[in-house]
Amino acid sequence: MNSQELGQIMVEFNRSGELGKLLDEHYAEDAVSVEAMDMGRGREAVGLDAIRAKHAWWEETMIMHSMEVEGPFPHGDDRFALIFESDVEVKGLGIRKKGREVALYHMRGGKIVREEFFYSMV
């Protein structure tokens, strides 16, 4: 599977919201997820279980009002980027923000081995 193909699969899974299935089928066991900023849990989640826990925390903490994904933007055979635009609310606090971020995915053997998120909290 090349970066265009895996990138398109990522787009489809993100649009459908089936992120658990996405992790199970398309992430390596030793994958690393890196956030631009530490939100109290560290910037890096190392290993598939840690990435699943990060996703669970997000779902417990946030309400996703809308999310759009653009791409993929391939970079050779081993990387691609996606652009996300979202409207999220912190549960229980009523704080709602719209944001835009770039996600860079590195792949090996047809699976995601590293994801890096770029965004501003300004």
Q: Can you describe this structure?
A:
- By secondary structure, the chain is α+β, with helices and mostly antiparallel strands.
- It has a 6-stranded mixed β-sheet with strand order 2-1-6-5-4-3.
- The chain is built from 3 helices and 6 strands, in the order ααββαββββ.
- It has a single domain (3-118), classed as Nuclear Transport Factor 2, Chain: A.
- Helix 1 (3-16) runs antiparallel to helix 2 (19-26).
- The N and C termini lie far apart (37 Å).
- The protein has helices at 3-16, 19-26, 48-61; strands spanning 27-34, 44-46, 62-75, 79-90, 95-108, 111-118.
- It is 30% helix and 48% strand.
- The model has no long low-confidence stretch (mean pLDDT 95).
- The protein is globular and about 40 Å long.
Brief digest:
The protein is α+β, with helices and mostly antiparallel strands. Helix content is 30%, strand content 48%. It has one domain: Roll (Nuclear Transport Factor 2, Chain: A), CATH 3.10.450.50.
Give the tags.
single chain; 122 residues; alpha+beta; Nuclear Transport Factor 2, Chain: A; 6-stranded mixed β-sheet; 48% strand; globular
Number of domains: 1
CATH architecture: Roll
**What is the count of β-strands?**
6
Strand content: over 45%
CATH class: Alpha Beta
- Structural class, by secondary structure, is alpha+beta
Number of helices: 3
The outline comes out as globular
Instruction: Using the CA coordinates, give the radius of gyration.
Output: 14 Å
Estimate the helix proportion, in percent: 25-40%
CATH topology: Nuclear Transport Factor 2, Chain: A
Question: What does the average pLDDT come to?
Answer: 95
Write the element-wise H/E pattern from the N-terminal end onward: HHEEHEEEE
- Give the terminus-to-terminus CA distance: 37 Å
Largest sheet: 6 strands, mixed
Spatial sequence of strands, sheet with the most strands: 2-1-6-5-4-3
Q: Provide the low-confidence segments as ranges.
A: none
InterPro entries: NTF2-like_dom_sf, SnoaL_5
Protein name: SnoaL-like domain-containing protein
Pfam families: SnoaL_5
Domain SnoaL-like: 2-119
